[in-house]
Specification:
By secondary structure, the chain is mainly alpha-helical. The chain contains eight helices and no strands.
Length: 135
């Protein structure tokens, strides 16, 4: 991503390990909060890792990234989230979560051009129709 800060290999590896560990298990909320803290204490290094989660279809990673980015409560992420929202490799679930984050940061997500540019509504409707036809 543009604007990422250089990161030490050791710290990057540690943060990536924490992220992978968090995605693996059903941790109680208090343990999850404690394990997320290192990510939140190193936002300049954690943010790129968290934003990359939106380029995957890993639901656990998407949920974790969304929660962590909400906890960071950093509206300066809006331009990077908008860039991801318009990226063709980002799936519809990830885009929906990005819209939720944008709304959390106070961005007006009701602008029809924002949704139209981000989610392929024709494809979503086509998938819905094929599901209705088989179900």
């Amino acid at each position: 991503m543009d604007g990422d800060l250089p990161i030490s290999e050791e710290l990057a590896s540690r943060l990536a390990g924490i992220l992978e560990e968090l995605k693996q298990g059903d941790l109680p909320p208090d343990v999850l909060r404690r394990r997320v803290l290192p990510l939140l204490h190193h936002p300049a290094h954690a943010i790129p890792l968290l934003l990359r989660q939106f380029e995957s279809d890993d639901e656990e990673g998407l949920a974790l990234a969304t929660s962590a980015l909400k906890a960071l409560d950093d509206p300066s992420l809006i331009p990077r989230l908008l860039k991801l929202l318009r990226a063709p490799q980002v799936g519809d679930l990830a885009k929906g979560l990005i819209l939720n984050l944008l709304e959390h940061y106070g961005f007006d997500t009701r602008d029809p051009s924002l949704v139209g540019a981000s989610i392929n509504l024709e494809e979503a409707l086509r998938g819905l129709r094929s599901t209705e036809a088989t179900g």
